[in-house]
């Protein structure tokens, strides 16, 4: 269930290599890195990356190009950030069109996850954006970038997202999940994937 993640702007190639080594040792599903760190050849892991990250304020054309370039460089999964401001303003059709543009750049079997920045949205908007993501062909909805000042994942948001997509899409909880207890709370709320930067500590707690 774990995307072992390193998206800090100061991340180096050596740190990404260490991330991949740690991911293999931990037995996680995937690593998630910035697109400039691709390709990651020979990892034996699912490779995820991000686009429109972290603000979401890129044009749809730029997001689609970034996603297509990442797929060409070996990304199996792309986590895109919506235009959060458009969502807050109720411009859900624009949000759906933005997602659809990136979906076209990430053809199946590529996986598209849609970061909605749930902490910045009210419940009605979370529901509307999740519905838009499903209508646009996304595979997952995801809570957070982990970079927004409003905060990261919450069990409430995960539960609402899971109820909205009804098992038709995956739900990724990400942002601020630093303990085993918090991770398990997210899974209980309906998360089917976890984005973790401190995967070792979280997973170690499962054996305590």
What is shown here, in short?
This protein has 208 residues and is an alpha/beta fold. Helices cover 41% and strands 18% of the residues.
Polypeptide structure, described:
The protein is α/β, with parallel strands linked by helices. It has a domain at 48-189: Aldolase class I (TIM Barrel). It is 41% helix and 18% strand. Strands 1-2-3-4-5-6-7-8 form an eight-stranded parallel beta barrel, surrounded by six helices. It starts with a strand and ends with a helix. The mean pLDDT is 97.
DSSP helical segment count: 8
CATH fold topology of the domain at 48-189: TIM Barrel
User: Mind telling me the CATH superfamily name of the domain at 48-189?
Assistant: Aldolase class I
* Structural class computed from helices and strand pairing: alpha/beta
Main beta sheet strand tally, sense and closure: 8 strands, parallel, barrel
Number of strands: 8
Distance between the termini: 19 Å
CATH top level label of the domain at 48-189: Alpha Beta
> Architecture of the domain at 48-189, according to CATH?
Alpha-Beta Barrel
Radius of gyration: 16 Å
Order of helices and strands: EHEEHEHHEHEHEHEH
Q: Give the helix proportion (percent range).
A: 40-55%
Shape: globular
């Amino acid at each position: 269930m774990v995307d072992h993640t390193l998206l800090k702007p100061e991340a180096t190639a050596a740190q990404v290599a260490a991330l991949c080594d740690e991911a293999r040792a931990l037995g996680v599903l995937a690593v998630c890195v910035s697109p400039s760190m691709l390709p990651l050849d020979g990892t034996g892991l699912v490779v995820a990356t991000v686009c429109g990250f972290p603000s979401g304020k890129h044009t749809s054309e730029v997001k689609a190009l970034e996603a297509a370039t990442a797929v060409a460089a070996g990304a199996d999964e792309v986590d895109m950030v919506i235009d959060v401001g458009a969502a807050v303003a109720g411009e859900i059709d624009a949000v759906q069109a933005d997602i659809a543009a990136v979906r076209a750049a990430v053809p199946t079997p590529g996986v598209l996850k849609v970061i909605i920045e749930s902490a910045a949205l009210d419940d009605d908007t979370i529901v509307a954006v999740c519905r838009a993501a499903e209508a646009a062909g996304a595979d997952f909805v995801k809570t957070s970038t982990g970079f927004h000042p409003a905060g990261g994942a919450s069990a409430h948001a995960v539960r609402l997202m899971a109820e909205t997509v009804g098992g038709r899409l995956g739900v990724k909880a990400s942002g601020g999940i630093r303990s085993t207890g918090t991770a398990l709370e997210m899974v209980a709320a309906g998360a089917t994937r976890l984005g973790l930067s401190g995967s070792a500590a979280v997973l170690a707690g499962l054996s305590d």
